[in-house]
Write a structure and sequence with these properties.
The chain is built from nine helices and 24 strands. The protein has 365 residues and is an alpha+beta fold. The strands form six sheets. A seven-stranded mixed β-sheet has the order 4-3-8-11-12-1-13. A six-stranded antiparallel β-sheet has the order 7-6-5-2-9-10, covered by helices on one side. Strands 15-14-24 form a three-stranded antiparallel β-sheet. The longest helix is centred in the middle third of the chain and has 21 residues, at 130-150.
């Protein structure tokens, strides 16, 4: 059964400030199995009938089905008295378990505002100044709504990783996260009549990036702004060393035809100071890789941004860089400092997304 600490973590007043506004988040994909538990847990199969299952429930992947104790189901939906525990993590709302392409797929459907409360401490710290917490709540809500609109016919709207927004259920909810969400209940950013694509990142290293440099599409509210506010953060600066042989293996694994790499050089930079390309010198000659693709191939946690210098010394590539993330939209560490400097969340948002304004979801539905 669900432990008492997990139960307490998800008890409390509901934050569903927008009646009926829910979000569907893929919290597990392509797993061979999953364990579902919870206090007062109930299971409903695809035809709407209840299934008598004794928790914890071990669910395995089958061909076009999920299997429990030898019985196949097309889908099982679980709900609990306080939360549903999926592989040890508690989630509000319901958990739908179904067969995915290569394994078990688990989708958490819950009220949007409750999703946001759980998200805050995954993306920043709720101990940050409240105006920064509120800014995070608004952009996370805006991002979620934009994705829900774009993926309205999909089985889920968001993933729970850095692919979309990091979300690990309700275990790390707290009162400050809840306040940031409830004080901005239903607020999203708009540009003209549309909800914006509210991209954000950890640390821009002094200048945010233009959307067209990363995704090839110009968005008028994502052209890049100067941001000195994050530079006092230790996360603004990073150094990394990686053996050239390891770097070569990572490039090969990503599909690049390189062999006998001897040197790595920074290429040209765009108007925001980030590398447009990286030169890889090998026995095959010189190859030019787009900066963002080089970062993806080597690893986002290794090459933290595309604003870096590099030199090869004794068989090691030595990187020194600024910032953490793709650099587009709100800089989270910059928002923290602006909040410390006395700016309100609306001022913070208008700085990083120029030309946008706040609007209630209820006013655009």
């Amino acid at each position: 059964m669900l432990g008492s600490l997990h139960s307490l973590a998800c008890l409390g007043e509901s934050n569903a400030a927008i009646p009926g506004e829910t979000i569907r988040v893929a919290i597990l994909k392509n797993a061979p199995s999953v364990t579902v538990d919870g206090e007062g847990i109930i299971a409903i199969r695809e035809n709407g009938s209840a299934v008598a299952l004794s928790p914890p429930v071990l669910i395995r992947y089958g061909r076009n089905s999920v299997i429990v104790d030898g019985t196949a189901y097309r889908r099982l939906t679980f709900a609990g008295s306080s939360a549903v525990q999926v592989n040890g993590k508690p989630y509000r709302g319901v958990a739908e378990v179904s067969p995915g392409e290569k394994g078990v797929l688990v989708v958490n459907e819950l009220p949007l505002e409750e999703y946001l409360v759980g998200l805050i401490n995954c993306e920043i710290s709720s101990a940050w100044p409240m105006e920064a917490v509120k800014a995070q709540a608004v952009i996370a809500r805006t991002y979620a709504i934009h994705k829900k609109q774009a993926r309205s016919t999909s089985f889920y709207h968001l993933e729970s990783s850095v692919i979309d927004q990091v979300y690990e259920g309700c275990e790390i909810e707290d009162s400050r996260a809840r306040r940031g969400v409830t004080d901005t209940a239903g607020e999203v950013l708009r540009y003209g009549d549309a909800v914006i694509q509210a991209f954000y990142h950890s640390n821009c290293g002094g200048r945010t990036e233009a959307s067209e440099h990363v995704w090839g599409r110009h968005l008028p509210y994502l052209t890049g702004v100067d941001c000195r506010y994050c530079l006092s953060s230790p996360s603004s600066y990073w150094d990394q060393k990686i053996a050239v042989s390891e770097l070569e293996e990572r490039l090969k694994a990503a599909g690049y035809k390189v062999s006998g790499v001897t040197d790595i050089r920074a290429g040209s930079r765009n108007s925001r100071g980030r590398l447009k390309n990286v030169m890889v010198i090998s026995s095959r000659g010189e190859s030019s890789l787009p900066g963002d693709q080089f970062r993806k191939a080597i690893g986002y946690s290794v090459i933290k941004s595309t604003d870096f210098t590099v030199k090869v010394v004794n068989g090691e590539a030595v990187f020194s860089g600024l910032g953490n993330g793709h650099g587009v939209g709100l800089c989270q560490w910059g928002a923290k400092q602006r909040a410390l400097d006395g700016f309100g969340y609306d001022e913070i948002l208008s700085y990083y997304y120029p030309g946008t304004g706040l609007i209630k979801l209820s006013d655009i539905r």
